[in-house]
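Good day; I would like, with your permission, to put a structural problem before you. A protein sequence and the structure tokens that stand for its backbone fold form the material at issue. I would ask you to consider whether the tokens describe a fold that such a sequence might reasonably adopt. I set the record out below, with my sincere thanks for your time.
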Amino acid sequence: MARWWESGTGSRTAGRILGWLMICDPPHRSAAELVEDLGISTGSVSTQMKVLAGIGFVEKITFPGDRSTYHQLKEDVWVKVMWSEVDQLERMLAISVVGSTVVPEDRPDRVTDIGLIAQFFLEKWPGFMDELIDFLEKERTNG
């Protein structure tokens, strides 16, 4: 997980934390537990948890009678991540609109394809997501 996360311009430490939160039992950890479990510094845990929370992957939770704060993956985080691709596609489409004013004569596809690809996926994405949710529900029920 750490290397995959890092390959997408995230930090390896954030990927390690994310991977651990995917498999730990119980499914939440305090900052102190993450330091101990993963052998990373308190500062790194603090910094990377802010990053992961800021992009919507983790949330803080507390329990009555326990003064610690814990971190866990948000419910259905992977579905939410896939839905967030719509934002990226809309930004791609906006780039194509701006770029349409300066389309080069030599290989105009360098500018036009970004908009065409964005349009294609923006039209298809809601259906893909409906299929994904149906698939997950079916697999979770049968698994």
Remarks:
- Strands lie at 29-30, 58-63, 66-73.
